[in-house]
Amino acid sequence: MYPKVLRNKIVESLKSQGFSTNGIVEPKKFNKNTFRKIQQTSKNEQINLQKHFLEEGYEVASKYFINGKDLNPADIKLELRLIGGGTEESKIFRWWNLVWWSVPYQKAYGRQMRFLVWDLTHNAPFGLIGLQSPILRMAVRDKHLKIPMDSLDLWVNKSMQAQRLGALPPYNQLLGGKMTALSITSNELRREYKKKYKDITTIMEKRIISPDLLFLTTTSAFGRSSIYNRLKYNNDIVAESLGYTKGSGSFHIPQTLYVDILKYLSENDVNIKTTFGNGPSRKLKLLEKAFTMLDLPKYSYHNIQREFFIFPLAKNLMNVIAKDVQPRYFNRKLSDLTEYWKERWCLPRSKRFDDWKMFSSKKFISNTIRKSINIKF
Asked: How far is C-alpha 333 from the chain's CA centre?
């Protein structure tokens, strides 16, 4: 592909999504509605690519739909279900992961764990947790934890990044997002992590790292998060805000356009290998290379900043890293977290508002999915 043709194609794609491209890429307006509209292009592309699965997966997912009128908030009882490949739970997770979030799905890298938060009483999926290996270098995180550079990979390999974290309808209208966030700090999740990664050797440094999960991180969808800020369990702060990301990433480059970019790089003798070991930043590095070659050096920044949060699992996390002492973990049973969430947020909200009662799965399918894309359900 000729450089000028590809350059124009990139600029036109960004403009059509709602970006300004005058020297730098940035949203034309800085508000959540604009951010959602921008990311809708990428989300619709993902839905198109997964159209066959969404039609097939609907048969499984729809068996566990719940309408608001059939939900009794006081009776909610939750468990974490670790998802294995090829299971019914994996299809439910994948289906909701594609259709529900305004932030489009992106492929996970490295270590991966997926959980369904499941409401046992109502036999329905409450929320999704998608964990993956974090980026090796994250300035805001590394500075806060005072991680020595020579042992950065050691400590980062004792953490996970929550790529997907949130509640499904109608639980989201009962502040279920707070409960899903609380659940990643549970004893049950730590135990599942330890069981899965016992005696695993790291690919980069070829060493066995203790399978003790020390902390998790995540980012808000758009700007400041109302879910994670002030999130407490009893008197403990569960999620601590460390600031904002710089607004770099790759979601603003559609997959079809990315394929053209890779072809252009390959034609110019650039190594486009993306096998595991290169890390989740490999795609961004390839884009940065292409943008520089196309005289678009700042186009890897979409300038949608996200708030960055850390979820410590050990009371003495800072000393664990600084002095290599044994972690003193918070004792948080999922059942205790659930009861706390119900009393603190769920039940009070259920009495003040009744929007959750209005949720209809049929209307959701009709209004949210069928209007945006032609899928046969």
From this structure: 23
Instruction: Show the beta-strand stretches assigned E in the chain.
Output: 19-20, 26-27, 78-82, 112-119, 124-132, 159-167, 215-219, 232-233, 236-237, 240-244, 307-312
- Residues whose CB falls within 8 Å of the CB of residue 322, separated by 6 or more in sequence, listed in order: 146
Please give the average per-residue pLDDT across 286-305, as a whole number: 86
Q: What is the pLDDT of residues 244-255, one digit of tens each?
A: 877 777 778 888
Measure the CA–CA gap between 61 and 63, rounded to whole angstroms: 5
List Cβ neighbours of 360 (8 Å cut-off, separation of 6 or more).
Answer: 67, 68
Tokens at 307, concatenated: 């708030």
What angle (nearest 5°) sits at the alpha carbon of residue 247, between those of residues 274 and 50? 50
Per residue in 53-110, pLDDT (tens digit) is 988 899 999 999 999 999 999 999 999 999 998 899 999 999 999 888 877 777 777 8
Element (H, E) at 15: helix 3-17
Backbone φ and ψ for 27, nearest 5 degrees, come out as -60, 145
| Predicted local distance difference test score (pLDDT) of residue 244 | 85
Q: Is there a contact between 274 and 109 (Cβ–Cβ < 8 Å)?
A: no
Closest CA to 185 of 310, 271, 91: 310
| Residue pair 15/36 in contact by the 8 Å Cβ criterion | no
Residues 6+ apart with CB under 8 A from 289: 265, 270
**pLDDT band at 203, cuts 50/70/90?**
low
